[in-house]
Specification:
Elements: H1 3-13, H2 17-39, H3 48-57, H4 74-82, H5 87-96, H6 105-125, H7 137-144, H8 155-165, H9 169-182
Helix pairs in contact: 1-3, 2-3, 2-6, 2-9, 3-5, 5-6, 6-8, 6-9, 7-9
The protein binds fe (ii) ion (FE2).
Length: about 190
């Protein structure tokens, strides 16, 4: 599947700027995670581009399914099937919303990374400059431990990086934070 096909799906389904930014952040995170696991020879499904596409599309239908957890990923699944997307991409997108079991590393990665990008955005937005540039992994980890901070960023879900992906929380934070810094302008941070 080509990235252009995924971008078209995002353009068809996403209206909100914040969702678009979130999709781009998740794409960057997934590509960086692919690089991390590729070096360890652990990637069991999907190409680098597939991992990026899973990030880009995981929440694409969030608005059109009217934020219904029940329906979430249904529209994206339909669009992915129309373009003949590989099953592992569809399964990973569906898996992040518990519509499919998460079998591959790619599926497990988006599940944990999704929430981590949210925590990082929240941690950037409380800085005086509201930018990612000066944000450190240490301060994201401090925020992680404050339950009242960005409550919607599910800490248990983020923590699955350790058991499901075999990457420590500090390293997971670092990899994703750096990937988002690289596209900070594109995501308004
Ligand atoms: Fe998401």
């Amino acid at each position: 599947m080509e990235r252009e096909e995924a971008v078209k799906i995002v353009n068809d389904l996403v209206e909100s700027k914040n969702i678009r930014y979130h999709c781009l952040a998740a794409e960057a995170a997934m590509i960086a995670l692919y690089g991390h696991f590729e070096k360890q020879g652990k990637v069991d499904a999907g190409t680098r581009q597939d991992w990026g596409i899973v990030g880009l599309l995981h929440d694409a239908d969030y608005e059109v399914t009217n934020k219904s957890l029940e329906l979430h990923t249904q529209e994206t699944t339909k669009k992915l099937k129309e373009v003949g997307a590989p099953k592992e991409i569809i399964d990973a997108v569906r898996g992040h919303a518990d519509k499919e079991s998460r079998e591959t590393l790619m599926a497990k990665a988006i599940y944990a990374a999704d929430e981590m990008t949210g925590l990082i955005v929240a941690a950037a937005l409380v800085r005086p400059d509201k930018k990612l540039e000066g944000l450190t992994a240490e301060s994201v980890l401090k925020r992680f431990k404050e339950p009242a901070f960005a409550r919607s960023a599910n800490r248990e879900q983020i923590k699955t990086c350790e058991n499901e992906l075999g990457i420590s929380l500090p390293e997971f934070t670092e990899v994703i934070l750096n990937s988002m810094k690289e596209i900070s302008k594109e995501i308004g941070l």
